[in-house]
Structures are given as structure tokens and as C-alpha cells.
Design a protein that fits this description.
- The chain has about 375 residues and is of the alpha/beta class.
- The protein has a single domain, classed as Amidase signature (AS) enzymes, CATH 3.90.1300.10.
- Helix content is about 35%, strand content about 15%.
- The chain has an eleven-stranded mixed β-sheet with strand order 1-3-2-4-6-5-10-11-9-7-8, with helices on both faces.
- The chain is globular and about 55 Å long.
- One of its GO terms (molecular function) is amidase activity.
Length: about 375
């Protein structure tokens, strides 16, 4: 197994609400005087060492968190597996021999191993929520734009968010309280939408492990389908395809010129995704944007104040290192939050054959604090 840290760091720490807590930083975030590698050696070679901390790192440090290291990430954050062709696969102590989930793999591993209390990560399409589920952790993808990404390597800017992973709900709430800018005013969550059309797609073992956690919250549960019948035989798959298309389009717009100029060596999955992204045409992008607009309206309509969407955070437990994940099934569960800019919370829910699986709760944009209260 690979150590989650690319570099360990000596940091004295400061006074503040996070004093005494150790912080592991995903290698997308700048640390003053420390190279940012974004999971790829060629990126490391072609970028200068930063002179300032990323905004999120600075906030956590100012609140007293002590940086203990930079952690492995999937290359340019474009994967959900937690593997890296150059630096290896960080250990998942909750599921030995299995992936930790990505792309915030090193941060999740460091927290799960007890080598950090807070793992700073990013979530574009599930990169906090999936590792949280696989490693038995708490994690929050915040409302898009609520946490600054200044000083962090982007992937798909209209989807990218920064959040944290922790072992305890109280630590998650404390750390996210530092990062969230401005307190959102809203009432508590009193109702959960656990839509039949999504839950019917979940493997039986995962349903049996996660649904009791939904019921344990003691809130009213609505099982009405999320997607109304509209002639689309697979509306959740349509949403996934739209997400994947727009993410790829933005990823190529963000990194295509650097890739063409520097010819980096990527692992096979990341290389294939960038190659396909370069071929997208405007008709595909326009169709995906229309679907995204529909999902934004759907979330606004079906998740009013006081309501959260409840689904598994992943279709099942972490897969074996070297195995083949069902990436599409994972993204079908994570894409609603990404497409709508909504916050998504992952909490430990149960086990399948002794391996952790998580519950995902999604609120309308701005509902971060209400989700943290539920945690």
C-alpha cells in the first residue's frame, strides 16, 4: 500500500477553534514554498512553487489547524477511483486491499488512518462524497462558490468545490464552519426525499445497509420518484451523460492548451477522458446545457427549504485495487448535486460484507449548515 502523503510538513500551528487538529492538504491546493503537483509529474515540472497558501488552506491555518502534509490525488482530479499511475494508491484501512476512492484519495486515506483530523479535498463529481463512503468518513461538498478555490488547480470550474473529510461529525461541522463564507439563514431539515426511481437502481445489499440510516434520522420520508415521466426512459442516465459531457468540455477548456504544449504522460483512464474531451462538438454541449437547466429547476422544485434528497453516496463498497468500477453508476448518484450546484453530505451508514457504505444527503444550494446539523 502507498503512503497517502506525497510530502510531510512541519507546521507549528496557531491558536484558534481548530488548534490541535492536524490538516492533510490535497495536492491541488497551494502551500507557500511547497510545489503543487496536481497528481502529475509533468505538471510539477512546468509550474512554479507557490509563494502563498490557497485561500482554503489559509483559512484553516488561521483557525489553528496544523498542516501535516500534501496528499496524493488522482491526476488533475479527474477520477473517482483513488489510484494514481505515478504515485500509487493510498491505503484504505476500512477496506484493506481496496481503493480509497478519488480524487481526494490521499486526504481520505490520511484521515481514515488517523494521521490527520481534517482532510482538505475537492469535489467536482463526487471526489469527497465517494471517498467518504468507501473509507467510512464524513465529508461535505459545499454549495458551489461558497468556499474559495483561489490557489487550487481547477478541473471543471462550474462544478469544482472545496470541502473536507473527517472521522467525526463534530469535526466536520467545526472545519466547514471556518470555510463557509457567510451564514445561510434557513430552517432545519424536517423531510427527506428518498425517491423510488433512484433507490430501485441500487444493489439490494446497499439498500439494506443504507435505508435504516435514512429511517434512523426520524424525519418524514417521501418516496415519490424524483423524475416525473416525461418520455425519457432513463432520466437519471440522461443527467449523468449531461454531467459527464459538461465536465469534459470544461476540463479540456481548462487544461487542453497545457496538454498540447507539454505532452504529459497520463494513466490510461485520465488519458482516455482527455482524448475524448478534445472531440466534443457544440451540439453535444448545447444538449447537455439544456439538461443541466432542467436539473437546476428540478432541485429548486423538489428540494424546497426543509427538504433533503437521501440516496446512497455510492452504489456499493470500495472495489478491489486493480478492479473495474462502474463509474457510470457512481456518477448517477453524485451528478445531481454537481449539475445543480447543491451541497452534498456523506455520512457513514452501514456495511456490506463488512465494508463501509455511506448515505448522501443533498439540499438546495445554500443548505450547507442544515446538512451539517443533520450530520
Amino acid at each position: 500500500m502507498t503512503d497517502p502523503f506525497i510530502r510531510t510538513i512541519e507546521d507549528a500551528g496557531r491558536e484558534g477553534p481548530l488548534a490541535g487538529l492536524r490538516l492533510a492538504v490535497k495536492d491541488l491546493f497551494d502551500l507557500a514554498g511547497v510545489p503543487t503537483g496536481a497528481g502529475n509529474p509533468r505538471w510539477l515540472e512546468t509550474h512554479e512553487v507557490p509563494t502563498e497558501d490557497a485561500a482554503a488552506v489559509a483559512l484553516l491555518r488561521e483557525a489553528g489547524a496544523k498542516v501535516v502534509g500534501k496528499t496524493i490525488t488522482d491526476e488533475l482530479a479527474w477520477s473517482l477511483n483513488g489510484t494514481n499511475a505515478h504515485y500509487g494508491t493510498p491505503e484504505n484501512p476500512a477496506a484493506p486491499g481496496r481503493v480509497p476512492g478519488g480524487s481526494s484519495s490521499g486526504s481520505a486515506s490520511a484521515v481514515a488512518l488517523g494521521r490527520a483530523d481534517i482532510g482538505l479535498g475537492t469535489d467536482t463529481g463526487g471526489s469527497i462524497r465517494v471517498p467518504a463512503s468507501y473509507c467510512g468518513l464524513y465529508g461535505l461538498r459545499p454549495t458551489h462558490g461558497r468556499v474559495s478555490l483561489q490557489g487550487a488547480v481547477p478541473l471543471a470550474p462550474s462544478f469544482d468545490t472545496a470541502g473536507v473529510l473527517t472521522r467525526e461529525a463534530a469535526t466536520l461541522r467545526l472545519a466547514m464552519g471556518v470555510l463557509l463564507e457567510g451564514a445561510a439563514e434557513a430552517g432545519p431539515i424536517t423531510r427527506l426525499l428518498a425517491p423510488q426511481d433512484i433507490w430501485d437502481e441500487i444493489p439490494e445489499a446497499t439498500r439494506a445497509a443504507v435505508m435504516p440510516k435514512v429511517e434512523e434520522l426520524g424525519l418524514a420520508i417521501d418516496r415519490e420518484p424524483l423524475f416525473a415521466a416525461n418520455g425519457d426512459a432513463a432520466p437519471l442516465e440522461t443527467a449523468r451523460v449531461a454531467y459527464a459531457t459538461l465536465q469534459a468540455w470544461e476540463a479540456w477548456r481548462t487544461h487542453g492548451a497545457w496538454i498540447e504544449a507539454n505532452d504529459p504522460e497520463f494513466g490510461p483512464g485520465v488519458a482516455m477522458r482527455f482524448a475524448n474531451a478534445a472531440k466534443l462538438d457544440q451540439a453535444e454541449i448545447a444538449a447537455a446545457q439544456r439538461v443541466r437547466s432542467g436539473v437546476v429547476a428540478l432541485v429548486r422544485d423538489r428540494l424546497p427549504e426543509g427538504t433533503a434528497l437521501a440516496t446512497p453516496a455510492a452504489p456499493g463498497p470500495a472495489f478491489m485495487i486493480g478492479g473495474s468500477p462502474d463509474r457510470e453508476a457512481i456518477v448517477r448518484l453524485t451528478c445531481i448535486a454537481g449539475l445543480s450546484g447543491a451541497p452534498g453530505l456523506a455520512v457513514p451508514a452501514g456495511t456490506v460484507e463488512g465494508l463501509p457504505v455511506g448515505l448522501q444527503l443533498v439540499a438546495a444550494p445554500g443548505g450547507d449548515e442544515r446538512l451539517l446539523e443533520l450530520a
